[in-house]
Write a structure and sequence with these properties.
single chain; alpha/beta; Rossmann fold; 3-stranded antiparallel beta sheet; 30% helix; globular
Length: 351
């Protein structure tokens, strides 16, 4: 007998999306994480975002590595494709899957240990290559699965639950993603679902490498006074650069907002992120400004959240390699084995 299975029967009048799916159709197993874990809030945001985007669950491939964060794909999209890889190696597995079949939506879920430590090299290369994916890091600043040691993203000077002080500089994954070439970079907070849901929706619609660093407090080891990744600290020091909404393509709607009040950033597919700017001089299309802003706010002890950078005319790995649009498992023998003449012509082109 299991206590983790959810009942399959639900109320017949639950609201449905454009595909006829209910929100329940995007859920997974019952979470076994600690009660109050920020990771469960991120799972809820992913569920809500994909439900609202009306993407069929079977069109999503979710991949993860090792850690508390990498357990979370079990708790959403139970009817999607899934692969739990080894520690820090999720990006390479996802890259191979994406090259084999570009028809799926690829969602990589990782943690600060999985991506900023053992997997840092893979994190770097999947972003600089522009793999068409949504890369979510559930960032709590500790190795929660191994009982609370500082991770590489723990801020210098922050204290552990046992009172130790971190003496090492922190790796800022959002800043690193900007320098590596990610064409969509954002930071969210697991305690702010209103901001996180549109960020996930926009990242899914974006073509190319979309990265979201989500501060996600660990209630067991890193939610105390002295931690810079606790619920209280982030709420008190949060600097949101924009107010967000996401609108998929529909018939044109006329609007006449006040001058300087609203800015629309067009994505590759015609979708729009509507930004209500808090700072008049912040432009999410300016990479240099994004880097400078992140560093200045970090020096001021603030946690910046929101859409930090987006490149509207982005490209991905398929564009760079000119890959076939047909999934490899759907290619015929004649496509896969074109013969000696085709091989000779290809070899000649390399001489």
């Amino acid at each position: 007998m299991t206590y983790l299975a959810k009942p399959k029967i639900h109320h017949p009048s639950l609201p449905v999306n454009a595909l006829g799916f209910t929100r329940r159709d995007y859920e997974g197993a019952v979470s076994t994480l600690c009660a109050g874990c920020g990771h469960d809030s991120i799972s809820a945001a992913i569920i809500q975002a994909l439900y609202e985007l009306a993407i069929a669950p079977h069109r999503v491939a979710k991949l993860s590595g090792i850690g508390c964060s990498s357990k979370t794909p079990t708790y959403f999209l139970g009817n999607s494709h899934g692969f739990n890889s080894v520690h820090g190696r999720m990006p390479s597995v996802l890259t191979g899957a994406a090259l084999a079949n570009r028809d799926l939506v690829y969602l990589g879920v990782s943690g600060d240990g999985d991506s900023a430590s053992i997997g840092l090299g893979q994190f770097a290369h999947v972003l600089r290559r522009g793999v068409d994916m949504v890369y979510v890091v559930e960032n709590n600043g500790v190795y929660g699965l191994t009982k609370g040691q500082f991770s590489a993203t723990a801020d210098k000077g922050s204290r552990s639950k046992r009172g130790a002080t971190n003496a090492d500089e922190a790796i800022d994954l959002a800043m690193l993603a900007l320098t590596l070439g990610a064409t969509f970079v954002a930071r969210g907070f697991s305690g702010d679902k209103g901001q996180l849901v549109p960020l996930v929706k926009a990242a899914v619609a974006h073509k190319g490498a979309a990265f979201i660093d989500v501060v996600s407090p660990c209630v067991a080891f890193n939610n105390h006074a002295g931690s810079t990744k606790s619920y209280d600290y982030v709420r008190e020091h949060n600097e949101s650069v924009n107010r967000l909404d996401f609108m998929p393509v529909r018939e044109p709607i006329a609007a006449d907002p006040p001058q300087g009040g609203v800015e629309d950033v067009m994505l590759h597919d015609g979708g729009t992120i509507r930004l209500r700017k808090l700072a008049a001089d912040y432009d999410p299309r300016d990479k240099l400004n994004a880097l400078s802003y992140l560093e200045s706010r970090r020096a001021a002890g603030e946690v910046v959240t929101g859409l930090l950078y987006v490149a509207p005319a982005s490209r991905d790995l398929h564009d760079a390699l000119a890959t076939t649009r047909t999934p490899l498992n759907a290619l015929a023998d004649a496509d896969l084995v074109p013969g000696q003449r085709a091989l000779d012509a290809f070899n000649a082109s390399l001489r």
